[in-house]
């Protein structure tokens, strides 16, 4: 799979695949949850640079991680969100919960 999860300190960067759908969502959910159980993650940054399509399971991945991170007082951001994905995030209401494209100049760290 094309996704990549990198942890730097208390921040988890999740590079999302081209299609964030039911085929990819389960793997992203599982891997990110394992990391969150092991590490003291306080910030999750979803990088949508390559993402062109997202369905309801993709929205569920983001919402699930948001709920988990809020329990420990953390935050979630989305970067490199294209207009079509941003529209989905707005229609789903996620834009009220997470920062979208507000982290200027942030790049995915190299593993």
TrEMBL record:
Domain of life: Bacteria
Pfam families noted in UniProt: STAS
Entry-linked SUPFAM superfamilies: SpoIIaa-like (SSF52091)
Transmembrane parts of this sequence: none
PROSITE patterns tied to this protein: STAS
Domain annotation STAS: ranges: 12-111
Single GO MF annotation: anti-sigma factor antagonist activity
Xref: InterPro entries: Anti-sigma_ant, STAS_dom, STAS_dom_sf
Record-stated family: Belongs to the anti-sigma-factor antagonist family.
Protein name per its UniProtKB record: Anti-sigma factor antagonist
Species per Swiss-Prot/TrEMBL record: Candidatus Galacturonatibacter soehngenii
